[in-house]
Amino acid sequence: MRFPRLSGRVVLAPMAGVTDAAFRHICREYGASLAYTEFISSAALSRGGEKIRRMLRIINEKPSACQI
């Protein structure tokens, strides 16, 4: 696995119920060079569903990470 070079030293940690797409966007505007999605359990991921798709929604966010 290859890890990207980050442009800054601020990383937004994964926080369940907090780090949705809008919050990640705001944090990037304030200098976060890497943003995690919300924590997603492997069981929920295997079931899928609209809520999980919303939590994993990443639009023009590079680099990004997901905590499973």
Characterization of the model:
With 68 residues, this protein is an alpha/beta fold. Helices cover 31% and strands 10% of the residues. It is built from three helices and three strands, in the order βαβααβ.
Q: What composes the largest sheet? A: 3 strands, parallel
State the helix count. 3
> Overall mean pLDDT score?
83
Strand order, main sheet: write it out: 1-2-3
Q: What's the shape?
A: globular
In short:
The chain has helices at about 20-30, 40-45, 50-55, and strands at about 10, 35, 65. By secondary structure, the protein is an alpha/beta fold.
List the helices and strands and how they pair.
Layout: E1 11-12, H1 21-29, E2 34-36, H2 42-47, H3 50-55, E3 64-65
Which keywords apply here?
single chain, 68 residues, alpha/beta, 3-stranded parallel sheet, 3 helices
